[in-house]
Specification:
- The complex is a heterodimer.
- Chain A is an alpha+beta fold.
- Chain A folds into 3 domains: about 5-85, Ubiquitin-like (UB roll) (Roll), CATH 3.10.20.740; about 105-280, Alpha-Beta Plaits, CATH 3.30.70.20; about 290-355 and about 365-510, Rossmann fold (3-Layer(aba) Sandwich), CATH 3.40.50.740.
- In chain A, about 25% of the residues lie in helices and about 20% in strands.
- Chain A is built from 15 helices and 26 strands.
- In chain A, strand 24 (about 470) and strand 25 (about 475-480) form a beta hairpin.
- In chain B, about 55% of the residues are buried.
- In chain B, helix 7 crosses helix 10 (about 215-225).
- By secondary structure, chain B is of the alpha/beta class.
- Chain B folds into 3 domains: about 1-235, Rossmann fold, CATH 3.40.50; about 250-335, Ubiquitin-like (UB roll) (Roll), CATH 3.10.20.600; about 340-435, Up-down Bundle (de novo design (two linked rop proteins)), CATH 1.20.1440.230.
- Chain B has helices spanning about 1-5, 25-30, 35-40, 45-55, 65-70, 95-105, 105-120, 135-150, 180-185, 215-225, 230-235, 275-280, 340-355, 360-380, 385-395, 410-435, and strands at about 80-85, 125-130, 165-170, 210-215, 235, 250, 250-260, 265-270, 290-295, 305, 330-335.
- The chains are: A alpha+beta, B alpha/beta.
- The interface between A and B is large, with 37 and 36 residues.
Chain lengths: ~550, ~450
């Protein structure tokens, strides 16, 4: 195994691994400060913050010969015998000088800067900078201009790392951003008439190591040190990007991508990024209502638990549409509930919203046309309950509608939870046949023609308010925790189904997950801990057989 | 300096001839015949060997061995391989490329064709400085003439070797003269020098193996082909036998003499002429009977020599012995005793702050900070501490300490370093006189309003 020496500490790396000094040092627990380098972008080695000393140790004599000058850690690959020194006086002085240089033209307006608290310039200056200012003091300047509909640029805060420019060239492929002018006068800019307007634009704000690029959606909304972070999965499409939900007091303030090389690398699309506003939409369904002869009345959850199963049992054959917005655990509990109410219940996957074809970007990122996070997971759960048709497929929403129209089911329970308050997912014509049913249960976030016809209208929750497992379009199962509590009076589906199953205590998705894993080979790998990057169910199945 | 007295200019042999830029004139002087001979008699590796054994060092500034550079190209590469001729002559005080292109363009072209043959390049780009419209006209005309005479194009003189030369005009930036900045600019991008490795010989223009050579280097190649390796090695300073790393300084060199001399101009002399000889013999001495205060040995980025150091030989090793960066472009600029060194350094800093490409933090901020300090000193608000800060910037900025990607910062640092080291008394007097109450201050001070240098 190749061995690299980082500050006298020996680190073994894989024989085929191509790592730079920053990556190797990180494994040794040593952070080499850097601005311009990012694992997802090309190397430019221009910020010069990662300068270190490097050399080689002769394998036979053990003698170490060092390169006489400082080298950028990002640009220097390591091999067997590479020696890296990150804590020498020369390195520390160089860091202090780069920090000093970067602050010469920086407005140092941290008190009004959104980035304060998560700013690399702040952090590195605290750690590597000098306490005394030697450069001339400039009057505070804070020029700001919008570079696109969602992103704004604080020109003077920029340290010219060009991460954003490289992102638009290499990942989104749209190349809106550029560097204009020269020397200390240079700025990030767009070409007139071509603003930063692409579906991945929000990522440049995450990439910005300082407070230069601001997200207008988040700007001045919350100090970052008040935000709590919960690892989550985006429910916007079938890609299932790993994200972090940042929230405070049950309010979401922003979503950020979380590194997951198997799914989204370091990025997420703007649709997903801003796709949390529906959680706090005032038109959400927050009450349970039971409609009896056109007369709707609010009702307590305890009454629902008591009355709903009985009403459904009396109504005749039950059909259940299991929404692809539900987690695997919730889908499994719902199907189990269905079987206890009506052993002959008809189970189908609920409506799967779609906007057509997938959209791919040069950097390897794909936005899926299928706008539901867990269709595959739900299908796998339904097949556990023996609902595979003769053709080998699991029935879908159209098959369900067919059953309603053919009146082969007399009661229906439709779970939905689609995050689209503006446009209803179900139109009048589709909803009309449901009027013929003896009992219709609709569980949704927003009112729709279908919920207007419901006997029981139950609230659903959004992605950050539930916990469990989703299986994305690549058969990768990702487990996530609940980030915020749903609005007062709303039970997450999981808690509701848990209680309907007569389980005691708080809803515990892990126990359900273990139960599923025990009873299905497809889910067997979920019996243990699921890492934060998830597990590929197909690979695990192959490995298991 | 035995060869000095009998030295006849060869690179400048067409200077003063009215139609020296035409192909007829060049052929009448023996031009293109060596090329024809070489194409029929020598294989490319032999040409590389010829240039290598001549000891020719690149005339663009760094003085790297030309033949050695050519051998870095990958062997048996399927191609294309590109040859870039660097005519982005932007170093202040330098104009020898312009003289060569305007007075004897065919000499440059012949050298280019030979170099392309040696490196197996089928396309050559001449990257021409934007500010040289006359060179553009003459060079383009010469290229057309060479095509008409069959020295360019398909199957040159039946040798099976084909070459196209394209004249590319830059958009006026100092950084485009840096090898990889030139390549980026040629590709249509912002001229930000590339990180190395990969070096251009492995991955250059359009990610193909590329050689970048200076115009004067091309002219030297033509003369080596015509007059032979022995002739070339008979001129200049031989390698120091006590220094195995010294490859010597062979051949004629064009010195650009300007500034405070009686007769400024481009003069050809053997490498190794001293600055004093150059100024006195060719330049007619410092003007108005004055004394030289300082002399730039080879373009402003090489630093400064004092009057006492004028006997330094101007070969590739000489200026380094007196603390200068090197020979550079051999653009000798004389500064007479009436010039304030503060003004000199201010002008230098203004140039580099303006021309820094802005990629690496130490250079971008260092050049701009040093300019602001010089502006403040000249505004009568200087402090002695500023000299220490300037010296620190000079010592820490550049490719040599490792803090930048390209050598522009070294070039910006050297005038600062040399001026402060060699003229510190003058700086201190200036600061004390102009800021008698505050010269001892050490606290940070408010910056002057930013003056735009555009």
């Amino acid at each position: 195994m190749p061995t690299v020496i980082v500050d006298d500490q020996e680190i073994e790396i894989g024989a085929d691994e191509r790592l730079n000094c920053i990556e190797v040092a990180r494994r040794a627990g040593v952070e080499i400060p850097h601005y311009c380098w990012h694992p997802g972008l090309s190397v430019v080695a221009s910020c010069r913050m990662c300068l270190i000393q490097a050399g080689t140790r002769n394998a036979e004599t053990g003698e170490v010969s060092m390169i006489p000058k400082l080298v950028p850690g990002c640009q220097t690959p390591v091999k067997d015998g590479t020696v890296i020194v990150t804590n020498s006086e020369a390195v520390q002085e160089s860091r202090a000088r780069v920090e000093e240089a970067l602050l010469i033209d920086h407005p140092i307006d941290c008190p009004i800067c959104d980035k304060a608290g998560e700013c690399l310039l702040q952090d590195y200056h605290f750690e590597h900078g000098q306490s005394e200012r030697r450069a001339d003091i400039h009057a505070f300047s804070s020029r700001r201009r919008d570079v696109g509909p969602t992103v704004t640029l604080f020109v003077d805060r920029c340290i010219m790392c060009t991460r954003c420019v490289r992102f638009t060239r290499e990942v989104s492929g749209t190349a809106e951003l550029m560097v204009s002018a020269r020397g200390a006068k240079e700025e990030i800019d767009t070409f007139p008439g071509f603003p930063l307007d692409n579906k991945l634009a929000g990522n440049v704000v995450d990439l910005c190591p300082v407070g230069a690029l601001g997200d207008k959606d988040f700007l001045y909304q919350q100090r970052v040190w008040f935000l709590k972070k919960t690892e989550n999965v985006c429910g916007g499409c079938a890609a299932g990007c790993s994200i972090v939900t940042e929230h405070n007091q049950d309010t979401v303030y922003r979503l950020k991508p979380r590194e997951n090389l198997h799914v989204n690398k370091w990025w997420m699309c703007d649709e997903g990024r801003y796709g949390w506003h529906h959680l706090h939409n005032a038109t959400r369904i927050v009450e349970v209502s039971h409609r009896n002869n056109e007369d709707s009345q609010a009702i307590e959850w305890a009454d629902v638990l008591r009355r709903l199963p009985k009403e459904l049992t009396d109504a005749g054959r039950l059909g259940i549409a299991v929404s692809p917005m539900l987690t695997v655990e919730e889908a499994w509990m719902l199907c189990s509930v269905a079987r206890t109410i009506d052993p002959d219940a008809y189970l189908a996957v609920g409506h799967v919203p779609s906007t057509g074809a997938d959209e791919s970007f040069p950097g390897g990122f794909t936005i899926r046309g299928e706008k539901a996070p867990n269709r595959i997971g739900v299908e796998m759960v339904l097949s556990m309950f023996g609902t595979v048709s003769e053709s080998g497929t699991v029935p879908g929403w159209n098959d369900f509608l067919e059953q309603v129209r053919a009146k082969t089911i007399q009661s229906a329970w439709v779970t939905a939870g689609y995050p689209t308050p503006e446009t209803s997912w179900c139109d009048e014509a589709t909803a009309a046949p449901f009027e013929e049913l003896n009992c219709l249960v609709v569980q949704d976030l927003f009112e729709s023609p279908l919920s207007n016809r419901a006997t029981w209208c139950l609230p659903a929750v959004g992605f950050a308010e539930r916990s469990g497992t989703w299986v994305n379009c690549g058969h990768r199962a990702q487990t996530f925790e609940q980030a915020i509590r749903p609005p007062a009076g709303v039970w997450p589906e999981g808690r509701f189904f848990w209680n309907l199953l007569g389980r005691s205590g708080l809803y515990d998705p892990e126990s359900i997950r273990k139960q599923i894993a025990e009873s299905s080979a497809n889910f067997a790998v979920l019996s243990g801990d699921v890492p934060s990057i998830g597990l590929d169910l197909r690979l695990q199945q192959v490995a298991g057989t | 300096m035995s060869s000095f007295d009998t030295f006849e200019p060869v690179l400048l042999e067409a200077a003063g001839i009215d139609d020296g830029h035409t192909i007829e004139s060049y052929r009448s002087r023996g031009g293109y015949a060596p090329l024809e001979k070489l194409l029929s008699e020598k294989q490319p590796p032999e040409v590389v060997e010829m240039v290598k054994s001549s000891g020719l060092r690149g005339r663009g500034g760094a003085g790297f061995m030309t033949g050695l550079k050519w051998t870095f190209l990958p062997k048996d590469h399927p191609g294309p391989i590109y040859l870039c001729v660097n005519a982005d002559e932007s170093e202040p005080g330098t104009f020898n490329n312009r003289i060569l292109m305007e007075d004897d363009p065919h000499q440059v072209l012949e050298g280019t064709i030979i170099s392309a043959y040696a490196t197996r390049a089928s396309t050559a780009y001449i990257y021409l400085r934007y500010e040289y419209p006359k060179s553009w006209d003459i060079l383009q005309k010469a290229i057309d003439e060479a095509y008409a005479a069959g020295f360019l194009g398909e199957n040159i003189k039946g040798s099976g070797f084909s070459l196209d030369i394209y004249l590319h005009r830059g958009a006026a930036a100092y950084i485009c003269g840096e090898e990889t900045g030139l390549i980026e600019s040629l590709e249509g991008k912002r001229a930000w020098p590339r990180i190395k490795p990969p070096f251009p010989a492995i991955e250059g223009v359009f990610r193909k193996p590329t050689v970048v050579n200076n115009i004067e280097t091309m002219a030297c190649v033509a003369q080596i082909a015509r007059r032979g390796v022995d002739w070339f090695r008979s001129i200049g300073i031989p390698a120091d036998p006590n220094n195995p790393r010294d490859p010597g300084s062979y051949g004629p060199k064009l010195y650009c003499l300007s500034g405070h001399v009686e007769k400024p101009g481009c003069y050809e002399a053997p490498l190794g002429i001293t600055a004093r000889e150059l100024i006195d013999r060719f330049g007619g001495g410092v003007w108005k009977g004055r004394q030289a205060k300082a002399v730039i040995p080879g373009g402003i980025s090489m630093g400064l020599m004092t009057e006492d150091e004028l006997d330094t030989p101007l070969d590739f090793a000489g200026p380094g012995t007196v603390g200068c960066l090197g020979l550079g472009t051999a653009a000798v600029v004389v500064v007479d005793e009436t010039v304030s060194i503060v003004d000199f350094l201010h002008n230098s800093c203004r140039f580099f702050a303006h021309e820094s490409c802005g990629q690496c933090t130490p250079c971008r901020e260092g050049t701009s900070w040093s300019l602001r300090m010089l502006e403040r000193i000249r505004a009568g608000k200087g402090r002695l501490r500023d000299l220490d800060l300037l010296a620190e910037i000079g010592d820490t900025m550049g490719m040599m300490p490792g803090s930048t990607i390209c050598g522009l910062a070294d070039g910006a640092a050297w005038p600062i370093k040399n001026s402060i080291a060699k003229f510190r008394d003058e700086f201190e007097d200036y600061i004390k006189q102009t800021n008698p109450t505050g010269y001892m201050e050490t606290d940070p001070v408010p910056a002057l309003p930013i003056v735009t240098t555009h």
